[in-house]
Amino acid sequence: MNENSVVELDRIFKQCPHCATRLWFRFCDMRRIMTRSGPRTLRLKVYRCPNPRHPDHDNVFRPELEGRFAAKYSKFGFDVILFAGSHFPSYDVKTKVGLHSLLTKSGVEVSLRSVNSILRGYATLQKFPLVNDPDCCLCITSRRSVILDIFHIANKGFDHSHWVIRDLLSGRVLCVQSYQSSASDEVLHHAVGKVWASLRVPVMGFTSDGDSAVSVVLDKYLRKHSNWHQWHLPLNIERVPVEHSVRSFWSRVVKPAYAGRPKGLR
User: Fold this and answer.
1) Residue 121 sits in the same domain as residue 144
2) Domain that holds residue 262
């Protein structure tokens, strides 16, 4: 990847989930994060609803896939944090120096002081937030429903990679599981089951990065539905989904989730 590469992200769902009004483009936000491939700039198209009659009129709607790169307010991508935590899961003075040396040799430009932030980020991802994070539980419960976004982060040069499950509506990371390539399906099935059993609100639908393992796992959970594919929308950063699929998923899943009248999949 070229240095200072720029990735443009636009919203997938451009209708207001409350009133179905077409969202208005408000401004373009620039966010710079550090990844294992070098610095990356996210060019984010931010929207707002022109209808003043609903509660989210003053709020902005950011691109849904922003949360696949990094956590909110973080300057480091998930790939850097998970790579660092996989090699140094515990923290001490030697860990700090050793991790800084490892990241520098891997081509990640990071100061010694920033290593603390990376290790704290890894500790946050490792604890299961639906049980151990009251703030996350309150955020999910207040929204009354979730749409699970499932994607994987490849650990280049190493056998272990990670599955990440987050809530598409709030952007909260709900579960992170490491896996080897030979056990990808089993680990993802366990992770989805763990999240599914711990949620106190309905699951409205699923989005993914298009990995075939996701379809295999979701088939086991949604087999009782006559056409479970209507509850799953693959969202790939490099490939724009079919407009018909986006409209159908928005009307069946996204709008009811925001409207506060969720039926859910269970």
Assistant:
1) no
2) 129-266
